[in-house]
């Protein structure tokens, strides 16, 4: 994992975001809403721009920050994003409206484990972005990887969970199952012959898997 000092330095080099995105970053900090680490999201956006991504499925909207960053970086991209927390969904909806992105960002309220049928109606995607309940990553993958086009990407955030996933020592009881599930997920990605996966030790850990 990159040290906090290095991460802070890299973050300081990144250009300031527009006022609405800055407001969202402040809201997330004040209300303890997890949004993607700034260094990680910049890396993801660069990769998506290189691959010409035009359609993204996001599992875990939170307040809509990542969806708006993707929409801003990729002006021709359509995003479908799912959020199960009603308060966060409503906040995201308001931010998307203020950004005039309602025609490009489709928000769905519900548990991603329960709305697969509705999501399938949107067809296939160039990228599946998983950034929700960390203990359920494997189930998200199983449900939605069939919707990823050939040579498309699956981006999984938080796969190292503060470096604890790499810890061979004792793990606190409250997060033991989640960490075990994340380890299993990471191993599955590397053993899956249908994908080529690379792990990036930035932010909270990010895996990018390319469908063969």
Automatic annotation (TrEMBL):
Transmembrane segments: none annotated. It comes from Anaerobacillus isosaccharinicus. Belongs to the class I-like SAM-binding methyltransferase superfamily. Cation-dependent O-methyltransferase family. GO terms for molecular function: magnesium ion binding; O-methyltransferase activity; S-adenosylmethionine-dependent methyltransferase activity; tRNA (uridine) methyltransferase activity. Catalyzes the methylation of 5-hydroxyuridine (ho5U) to form 5-methoxyuridine (mo5U) at position 34 in tRNAs. Keywords: Magnesium, Metal-binding, Methyltransferase, S-adenosyl-L-methionine, Transferase, tRNA processing. The keyword Cytoplasm does not apply. The gene is trmR. One of its GO terms (biological process) is tRNA methylation. This is tRNA 5-hydroxyuridine methyltransferase. Mg(2+) binds at residues 131, 157-158. Gene3D superfamilies: Vaccinia Virus protein VP39 (3.40.50.150). Homodimer. InterPro entries: Cation-dep_OMT, SAM-dependent_MTases_sf, SAM_O-MeTrfase, TrmR_methyltr. It catalyses: 5-hydroxyuridine(34) in tRNA + S-adenosyl-L-methionine = 5-methoxyuridine(34) in tRNA + S-adenosyl-L-homocysteine + H(+). It is an enzyme of class 2 (transferase).
